[in-house]
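Reply to dn_fold:

You asked what the input looked like. This is it:
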Amino acid sequence: MDQRNLFLAIGVTLAIIIAWTMLYEEPRVREQQAQVAAQPADSPTVRPTVPGAATTGQRASAPAATREETLAETPRLAIDTPRLKGSVALRGGYLDDLILSDYHETTDPESPPITLLSPVGTEHPYFAEFGWVATSGDPALPDRDTLWQADSDTLRVDQPVTLSWDNGAGLIFKRILSVDANYLFTVSQVIENTGGESVSLAPYGLVSRWDTPEVQSFYILHEGPIGAFEGVLEEEDYDDVKEDGAFTFKSSAEKPGGWIGITDKYWLVALMPDQQAQLEGKIRYVGDDRRDKYQTDFVRLDVPAIAPGQTVEITTHIFAGAKEVKLIDDYAELLEVVRFDRAVGFRWLYFLAKPMFYVLDYFYGVVGNFGVAILLLTVVI
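and this is what came back:
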């Protein structure tokens, strides 16, 4: 009797999984592919600049320098929190140096901590950037050579830092950076128009990764570009992005907001703009025959012209850290970011695997041993 019930339970579970795949997952994938195929080859929407990716850079073909050598080449704003160490490059304003203090490369606690982000010039550059593009005219805007002035030398929890730059032609740019006790950065971009004419600008954010990382070819695990627009999760493999060149997604006034970034098995770098904004997101390959380069970015489409005497502030959040399930869920709820919780790769078995994970995590919290926790979960099932 017990054996028959076991086989019956297995059969019911398989039937649920097959039905879920046929009735939901496969139609969703076909719809997503049709949307991508319908995108025009040359979208008329605003594109962000591609610093360090559209051009090869000074070190594109030179041997990679050490992190210490590269970090010493430009003035930096230090990042110092209980869980993060690193810096922001004041020339260009890149978030390109980030180390996860409480995670290590091996199970040995004495092994080096995880390096998440690295600047151009190192072996595998990986960075985030924010800025503005002009939708009309040609105003002087901050770019990769801009040297920002910081009002402090260290970014800490509850101690935001303001970066500023004056273009000398009536526009003053500021970036107010803050970070919480975990992995969430907040970037508020401010423009003060002290000139005599209106300017039309659109804010953008991007995550750029050079070189194709090693990934685990496992069908239930996604590693690579990821995001969600209009409530649809978008996951693209590195080889597909390299082959197809670009994927474009948009949010609308009816379904605004979205998020976009790059995920590894355990780590995530993701941009979360204002969730009431109309956005265009892109996943694209911007490499050449010498080096692979991948970029995920968004540009906001609904910012009105900035009149003389007016100040505009646009806020974006960036998650850069470990994909801790409870933390990801908390951010998704706090910031009201649709499907951000799907950044953790439960994928097709989400409706089963996530509840089981929380039960397993609860048992682990009680007994302090994953082996025993797994046994207790098995008994419950």
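Residues 28-61 have pLDDT under 50 and may be disordered.
Hope that clears it up.
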